[in-house]
Amino acid sequence: MSHRGMEGSAVLAKNAAEPAVPLQHTRGSSMQTRLTKRNRHIHAENVIGRAIAMLCAAMLIILVLSISYFIASKGLATFFVNGVSLKEFLTGTTWDPEGEPAAFGVFPFILGSFLVTVLAAVIAAPLGIGAAIFMTEISPAFGKKILKPVIELLVGIPSVVYGYVGLTLLVPFIREQFEVLGFSVLAGGLVLALMILPTITSVAADAIEAVPQDLRNASLALGATRWQTIWHVVLHSALPGCLTAVVLGMARAFGEALAVQMVIGNTTKLPESILDPISTLTSGITLNMGNTIAGTPYNNALWSMALILLLMSFAFILILRILGRRKWASR
Amino acid sequence: MTVNIQQAQDTVIKTSDLSVFYGQKQALNSVNMEIERHAVTAFIGPSGCGKSTFLRSLNRMNELIPNCRVTGSIQIDGIEVNSDAIPIEGLRQTVGMVFQRANPFFKSIFENIAFAPRFHGVKNKADLEELVEKSLRKAALWDEVKDRLHESALALSGGQQQRLCIARTIAMQPSILLLDEPASALDPISTMKIEELVVELKQEYTIVIVTHNLHQAARISDHTAFFLMGELIEKAPTSQLFTSPQDKRTEDYISGKFG
After folding, report:
1. Partner B contacted by A127 (CB < 8 A)
2. Is B154 within the bounds of a domain?
3. What is the ipTM metric for this complex?
4. Does any CB of chain B come closer than 8 Å to the CB of residue A240?
5. Would you say A253 and A281 are in contact if contact means Cβ atoms under 8 Å apart?
6. Is there a contact between A224 and B256 if contact means CB atoms under 8 Å apart?
7. A248 Cβ contact list (under 8 Å, min separation 6)
């Protein structure tokens, strides 16, 4: 009979069966020298390793700080040097930087950025989380073999390609369906939704996979159906991770310039519906920067828009941090 | 009077030729067993002997394991349940299970208990609150948590979490409780509480407990079944099994010759 893997009351017997090995003192002195020598060597390695790691960390911090400082110093010039009021800048709806008098209202850009981002999130979040559920809970084999590589492929497609596809297929489609221009908030939101879908799917899938199997078993053992288990236990437990996925997607959508710029029409007029064209902060910067000279109010206003983008990305990171820190809530 | 005694001694679970296969490997070999109503039946045996596999067959949790096949008959109150004709949700509601590791949901204490009753039709808030209190009282946890029902269940200690899991199972009003080494990860004091609870609960439920701890089996069970290498070697009233086992292997195991 095999004794392998047997335990329980035999613990005592096992301990008794293994007599303590007497310590050997014969090599004591040589052991001591070896120990001290190696310690010195390890110490030097530690110091060097630590210095390299600290240098890398310091460089990252300096990089982030200097970028922030640079953008802030340029961006704040609009208000402190050119005398544009912050309120007028943020809430003004007229963008005419070369007019007489010049008007620097960037509200249409801000609105555009938020509209396309929210639209993209609203479309992509349910699809992405649904796909994540499918590839983790419903059909893990198919998910791992086919869906995951496909999603990785989608992440790798350059944004200009998404924009081009949107321009060639989506814009004419919207034009024909709704008898409008075609370049629109809707087109931008759809292109962005497609772009952030893989991000949301893969991050949400990771979060769902991290839910302990024990919880699924507990739920099923309580007579819950598979769907009740997925909805009330798995998704509920993975909620912070799924929200993180959506916020990450939104951060990407908010910062995307090229693909959006190709399909939204880039007008500074406020849209009346999602079928109207619009501009975003990113498209505003990329389209205008070639026309400006450094130091002019026009140029500074573009930097101020960049500053808003930077602050928004800080805000997204802050939200992610709060989501990550959130303890498993009571409900 | 005699009727009552017979009632107390009758069989609630009866398996015939129950075998379990994981792929090609046979984990349980043709087990025939009868489990008595309102009694604590303990399963003992070395790891890999099939006792947990047998337990998990009773509420068909083995179906969650890929390539797992369960053949033979399981009758609960005379009804064949090892069959696709039996809705699995109803079976699991009747045959509750508590796992080795406490696994509370990432929800409040209240929501943990109310989880199963909600799915099984208790919608009224007052009814739910009453059921939650009753279940927590039965699991001897009410006094410790009554002031923080809406706080996270994960803030409880390990022993409290395990009693919460028992309360959660009780809340769906099962007839049979399967406990898969419920105290193996707990400290002695928490273990003692769980053991007291098990003895208390057998008034209302038929309890089947898997344990590695022979002393625990001796302390709390009325009947003990000894498994070895996928086979049921012996099942007898606990006092009888521990004092005069019929099989040499049982004797060797309980006297610590192997295990």
Report:
1. no
2. no
3. 0.90
4. no
5. no
6. no
7. A199, A200, A203, A316, A320
Of A6, A13, A215, the CB nearest to B105: A215
Task: State the residue for tokens 């997925």.
Answer: A230
Residue B172 lies in a domain: no
Name the token pair of B43: 């399963």
Q: Which residues contact A148 (CB under 8 A, 6 or more apart)?
A: A135, A202, A205
Cα separations in angstroms, A14 against A8, A135, B188, B196, B257:
10, 46, 22, 30, 11
pLDDT tens-digit readout, B186-241:
899 999 999 999 999 999 999 999 999 999 999 999 999 999 999 999 999 999 99
Cα–Cα dist A254/A282, whole Å: 8
CATH code of the domain covering residue B199:
3.40.50.300
The first and second tokens of residue A275, run together, are: 């079928």
CB contact under 8 A, A5 and B108: no
Across the A:B interface, residue pairs with CB atoms under 8 Å apart total 104
Expressed as residue numbers, the domain containing B54 is 2-103+178-254
DSSP-derived 3-state class of residue A267: coil
A213 and chain B in contact, CB less than 8 A: no
Domain presence at residue B134: no
Q: What is the residue extent of each domain of chain A?
A: 95-325
Q: Any idea which architecture A95-325 has in CATH?
A: Orthogonal Bundle (1.10)
The one-letter amino acid at B168? R
B172 part of contact set with chain A, CB < 8 Å: yes
In angstroms, the CA A187 to CA A168 distance is 11
| Chain B residues closer than 8 Å to A9 by CB | 214, 254, 256, 259
CB contact under 8 A, A9 and B108: no
Q: Answer whether A236 sits within 8 Å of B116, measured CB to CB.
A: no
Give yes or no for a contact between B62 and B70, defined as CB atoms under 8 angstroms apart. yes
Radius of gyration from C-alpha coordinates of chain A: 29
B37 SS3 class? coil
For testing contact with chain B, the best of A11, A139, A211, A222 (most B CBs within 10 A): A222
Q: Which helix (H) or strand (E) holds B233?
A: strand B231-237
Distances (CA, A) of A75 to A89, A311, A328: 12, 11, 40
The total of structural domains in chain B comes to 1
Instruction: Please indicate if any CB of chain B lies within 8 Å of the CB of A214.
Output: yes
Residue B64: list chain A partners with CB under 8 A. Answer: 217, 220
d(CA A202, CA A128): 8
Identify which of A221, A223, A328 has the shortest CB distance to residue B154.
Answer: A328
For residue B4, pLDDT over 60 is answered with no
Does any domain span residue B111? Answer: no
The tens digit of pLDDT for each residue in B104-124 reads: 999 999 999 999 999 888 888
List, edge to edge, every strand of the sheet that includes B176-180: B95-98, B176-180, B206-210, B40-44, B223-228, B231-237
pLDDT of res. B26: 93
Alpha-carbon gap: B128 to the closest alpha carbon of chain A (Å): 16
